[in-house]
Amino acid sequence: MRKFLRISLSLIFISLIVSCQKSLEEKGEAKYIQEIKDWHNKRIDNLKKENGWLNLAGLFWLNEGVNKFGSDKTNDIIFPEGKAPAFIGTLTLKDSIVTLRVSKSIEVKSEGKIVTTADLKNDIQGATILEYGSLRWFVIKRGNKYGIRLRDLENLLVKSFKGIETYPINSDWRFEAELEKYDPPKKIEITNILGMIEEDISPGALVFTKDGKQFKLDALVEDNQYFIIFADETSGDETYGAGRFIYVNKNDSTGKIILDFNKAFNPPCVFTKYATCPLPPKQNHLKLKVTAGELMFKGGAH
Length: 302
Hints:
Blueprint: H1 2-25, H2 30-48, E1 56-61, E2 65-70, E3 77-78, E4 89-94, E5 97-102, E6 108-110, E7 113-115, E8 117-120, E9 130-132, E10 135-142, E11 145-152, H3 156-160, E12 174-191, E13 197-210, E14 213-222, E15 225-230, E16 244-249, E17 257-260
Parallel strand pairs: 2-3
Antiparallel strand pairs: 1-11, 2-4, 4-5, 5-8, 6-7, 9-10, 10-11, 12-13, 12-17, 13-14, 14-15, 15-16
């Protein structure tokens, strides 16, 4: 009995030590720490969804003219064997329009309805999603190129995904920032991981101060939020080499702009080679170790 009590007390003591260590690592009010944890859990849930990044199974650039697709190796676009018929049909690219024609007796659906032929909207327009079994595919537009992005809802990464490690939550990495406006808004070049360059518009730079030094990050606008693509001195070591992303509300309930690096997250290219991620512009390479947000994900494509 005494031996059992000693073991139980030892386990309780170890548990208390671990709990204390974790508390020491995290910094901030309990409400704030929980807010960040809830945000991160929602982020993980979104990755697992049908429109998340874990189920990507292919990216195929279309040639001008007719592109045959299916699982047979003679097709221009080869879908996974065992997941699709040998010849599903054709995707014809002409004058920036992609037209689908499905082979007879093959049931391809869109929004639950069988499709035999259709002009497909790309992801910029609000993509037409096509379905066959566990496969989903749609047209993407990158610069002047058009491609087919393929998803497999039974992708192994979805099933094996255990989450993403993060730095300990630390409220010291939450800053009140100011927008240094560009008048007129500045055109900046954004290169993606495929080497394609697109011009985007920055309304200004978010300016924040850390340890008495001022830093700036050029912002883009997406869905009525500021979108930041940045790299720092952890990139390629503790965090993803091609940088991380942050979304920032234009202002909170008090009118302040809050830049919170605890919400810095990995781009989709960390999970899959089939994504076309934008890279940080040179001016967004911080000479600073940002030890907050998501760490490098080790179970994906890189």
